[in-house]
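Running log. JK asked me to keep both predictions on one page so they can be read side by side. First protein, sequence followed by its tokens:
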Amino acid sequence: MDKYINVPLSDEDAGALRAGDYVYLSGTVYTARDAAHKRMQEAIAAKQELPFSMEHNVIYYMGPSPAKEGQAIGSAGPTTASRMDRYAPALLDLGLKGMIGKGKRSQEVIDAIVRNKAVYFAAVGGAGALLSKCIISAEVIAYDDLGTEAIRKLTVKDFPAIVVIDSEGHNLYETAIKDYKK
């Protein structure tokens, strides 16, 4: 079922999503990859403020290519989410409501998703040029020295994703395999 969702994610919207739903996200999404996650983890350990509030927000695991003239951003495809698994539970516990990436997540992340009634979305890998067309604006807000791994605030319009793990822990990667074997 196709759903059009505004981000940041409300508790109600996150709770209504089910593994397998096709969603189109509009609003604000933040980007962060390995190096940015490591810095955020260090900030948490040092009891410092994070570059943005996790509360109800969505992080897209993406490192964009440079924007061409007239574009908000270059190719903007997802990166492998499992690389952020060591950091994700702490961010979820701080109120992060959604993550966008590709690939499977660890049991620790799945448990944190359920505990915090969050959601994990997949974006189609290899479609970065098409996904970039859904990004209206992009602004570096933290860790500029990290280049493509800097944290960016994106404004997105009808950004396509699939709910892979919903707030109840249903996991499309597991159910799809079982359905396929039938």
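And the second, directly underneath as requested:
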Amino acid sequence: MANLMSLEVLTPDQYLMKRKDIAYVLLNTVTGGVGILANHGPMVAVLGEGTLKLQDGDNHVMLLYVEGGFAEVKSNRVVILTPRAQKAEDIDVAKYEGIRDEALRRLEHPDALTDIEHTEKVLRRAQARLKTASLVNRVEPFPIP
């Protein structure tokens, strides 16, 4: 059995996840992916918008969308602080396809009131959610030594 660590995913209004049986975490940082196994050295990372991959001791893979934030790794504990997070299976694909399509339309045909920077952010977030949802039941467990 793999060595395990605890994990907490917190948003301003909820504990999305709190577990003590995590074997592997793949963080989506602003500089790229970082894999975390038990006994990883201390680290603080800035997260990008995207998928957080978790794997428990039974090799069950869980996927979460996180909207940026920070990760702290210390003493076999991973803490994710993010403004928003959502389990992949709870993402409303039709809703975020609509948001993506509307953002693309606004960027292709901006008017005087279009905030390009904000619209690009909305588009990135919708695309990241859709990518996370698309990975459900398609991601293989990481081979734990």
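Observation for JK regarding the second prediction: The mean pLDDT is 94.
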